[in-house]
Amino acid sequence: xxxxLAMIVGIALGxxxxxxVPVALQxxxxxxxxxxxxxxFGGIRARLDGIFDDKQFVISFVSNVLVAAxxxxxxxxxxxxxxxxxxxxxxxxxxxxxxxxxxxxHLFRA
Amino acid sequence: MSAPAAPPPSGADRGxxxxxxxxxxxxxxxxxxxxxxxGYADVAARRATAGPPRPTARRTGFVLRTLxxxxxxxxxxxxxxxxxxxxxxxxxVRNGLVSDVQARQAETDAMQRQxxxxxxxxxxxxxxxxxxxxxxxxxxxxxxxxxARVTGDGVTVTMADGPAPTDPVTGxxxxxDPGRVVDFDLQAVTNQLWHDGAEAIAxxxxxxxxxxxxxxxxxAILVDxxxxxxxxxxxxxxPSSMLDALKDSQVGTFxxxxxxxxxxxxxxxxxxxxxxxxxxxxxxxxxxxxxPTPTATTPGSPPSSGGH
Lengths: 110, 308
Hints:
The complex is a heterodimer. Chain A is mostly helical.
């Protein structure tokens, strides 16, 4: 599937280019990864449910990453960075687990 | 992520937790029950009525989707590299510091050995010029003030902290620790040994001169700027009566009481063949030229059987 291929290409690009993340963005990298994973798992579940849409997937991906990073940045400025990032990670983690559970039901029953 | 403003489309997810008909479930219930974006369901409903999307829309959608997935892969690998790159930095810095400390310590030890050799050489040359030697007044004074290496029989006192007491109620370490060895304890024992006739005392290999200090800095005991590690071994060369005199003295009975009550280690043993190193040279403050005719003074026999 092109999707898996695209991801592998992305990983290979990261390994080959070895981009150095600017120091200002380094704290937001983990949260961006979790947000991106949430969008990807949501897309996989939508595909298995038969309701996948490209535009929705791309929008959810971009907005997930941006909003998560924005919330963490806002929390850092306000002084509650740790708590807000914990909240964001919890919510994203719950969504990932929920989508993975639905994917599991699709794969092992149907 | 978009929060739904209306009840879920299926309607079958409404359970007893809904507050009233017409009110959707609260945010957390919605989060746990419907982790999927409601946007997908909306688009599917719209597609059911409007029909499949046009080919151009499908192509742009495919390209964008591929780009998003490439971006995800890139994010994953970059994040992995960040983690891998930063983790060894802490350990490599620490290893660098450790090797630095060890190199400096080796340098200091080598310089100390060189200083000892030069000191012995200077002493030999001085003995030749002054005409002093073993048994002379200079030798005797050096032995007593700690500037010469001495061997003899004497006493070894070993002291160490007792186990730290814990508060029986809270289980945490108690505030007072009477079983801990502080500088006062070492001072009291060494003063008692001097009183009982010791001629040379060393603690953990650090020879005490008449100007030595035993003090507590933080939680470490220092003798003349050298920190000591437990157990503290006080070696004293002196008469054979020193052992009993120490055990029977007030100091000895006090620390014996501490050792039996609070577990502080306090062992007093006779030891033969002690060899105490010389202390570091004190700073020279006053020197006078020797008179032209050397005066040979032979001191009386040493007052005790120990030390030479």
